[in-house]
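Section 3.1: Structural characterization of target chains.
Under the original work plan, the team committed to producing a structural model for every single-chain target entering the pipeline before any wet-lab resources were allocated. The record below documents one such target. The sequence was received from the expression subgroup and is listed exactly as submitted; it comprises 316 residues.
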Amino acid sequence: MQAKKEATYSIIIPHYNSVPTLKILLASIPVSADYQIIVIDDNSKADMSLIKELVLKRGGEFYLNETGKNSAGTCRNIGLSHAKGKWVLFADADDFFTENLPCQLEKFSNHEVDIIFFAPDSLNLETGLKAGRHIHYENLLRSYQENPGHANGLKIRYCFNPPWSKLIRKTFLEENNILFEDVIIANDMLFSTKCGFFAKSFAVCLTPIYCITKSRLSLTASANREKLTIKHNVNLRRIIFLKQNLSESDWNELNAFGLGTVIGWFNDRLKLIDIFRLIRLCRRNKIRIMHRRYLNVFWVVKEMLARREKIRNKAS
């Protein structure tokens, strides 16, 4: 009897109350033995048997998060524990893959690098028009492709925070014990930072294999103050990791902690006690909050306008 072919790609999908978009996502994945589809439900309120049937019909595997920790990060870790493919991809249940997926994965499947970064696309689900959520990531990859120098390489490694639109070697994750955090929001931030730090090599591709969607129902769009506080705490842990592990020259080049980070604490209306905790963590880890250039009014205004433009692009 012929042995069953092992999958080349394991696609890990955390799911919570997104059945209509999950159908679209699953339909965008080729039905092939090359693809292992893993869906982990984070205790949805929807009919569990319906979700399981939907996944099994596409030849996928269905698991339920029974850890008691409700988090997409926990679900992704469960998915990693079941992944059998040479490569791992992550997808959110409200996004989908483009028609370029099979040919681009085949093109890179034999590469010896640890990570391949793909420029994503984005779509506004309510208008059906192209959104702006992909622009930042596309610009990162385009800048590196045009000038693959050290500075642009740092930005690829440490400024492409989401786990999607990447092809990641599974043995690389295992060897470096890289997992997601069990938090309700921004669980992928430190994961992606560690991937960037430990990767010996990477490649970039401007052909989109993944489309990010935008809607008012998404987790980031509906983030309340409590979730935003968690996000800023995660971001500071990411910054501390970089401060402790990067060389001084790379830390200064990356400029991971700037005025925009502090402005974000106030813009998101964090409680003063939470802001003081963040400041105390900065001081404890020798991360300078105030810089001489912050005294330059024109520089501060320029930074604030740049941040506003970045927020506007994400919202469009």
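The first strand starts at residue 9 and ends at 15.
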